Amino acid sequence: MDTQNPSAPSHAHTRVAGKKHPNRHPHVGLVHDNARHTTRFTVIGNHLAQHPELSLLAIGLGTHIQSLPAGARIDIKTLAARFPEGATRIAAALRELEAHGYLRRVRERVPDGRIVTRTISCNQPGHRTTDQRPLRRAHPAPTKRAPRKPLPAVPQPAYPAPALLQQATDLLADLRRHDPRLLLSACDTAHLAPAVAAWLERDVTPAAVRDALTSDLPPEGPRRPAALLAHRLAAQLPPPPPFREPAPAPTARHPLQTCDGCDRAFRAPEPGRCRDCRTAASLRRKA
Prior knowledge:
This protein is mostly helical and 287 residues long. It has two domains: 1-141, Arc Repressor Mutant, subunit A (Orthogonal Bundle); 162-235, no CATH class. The chain is built from eleven helices and four strands; from the N terminus they run H-H-H-H-E-E-H-H-H-H-H-H-E-E-H. Helix 2 (56-67) packs across helix 4 and helix 8 (186-200) packs parallel to helix 10. The longest helix has 15 residues, at 186-200. The protein is elongated.
């Protein structure tokens, strides 16, 4: 990855062959004032430095990675601590380099039994050097792609109302705005939406659900976001809210009426006589 040139001449400066004067046309295009490197240099192919599809950040990050010694850490957390662009932009640049063949990831079992992910930098995509052959023999490319493992089962809401499921679907679709690595397919979203609805019907706010799904993600990013979210929705499901006695219905307050017998004001649903007048009339009838 770090290609040295031990046969370089010892003089410090050299002119480009065929050019008698580097500033022959000082006002036309780029002019190079080059010094030949004899130590601490890396050969970078123009296919990377002038790549027509890679972003400038991806080209710069690919150049930096190719200049690093073997064994250097190039995970997102380490690179974000080294450069000011931040984890999100660095993660996007790494995906660009991987998509164009400048990086590839292989999983290996180390002597203590753990399985680790190793990142390989390719200074010329499509070409494998001899020092990479042991990895290829140890991990041969499968002839047939293994079927995708189904997502884990997720909790279901007690009352799957359409409005509640739509709110859960919108929350999942919005996760990619908070972390681009949580971009979900329509199929994965439909599988996870009932679990989010189960959280919402337990009086958990949408902000609290979003925080539970996006916090403390692996530095290198989840390999399968939907599976990680399914596990969190099932393992961290909060209990139902405590039962609360329904509030008593408010006492009806009747309007003021004027008593037909004594003209005194009293409250009643309809006009008539007050309680005293009704009581006196009842006593007279009994007598």
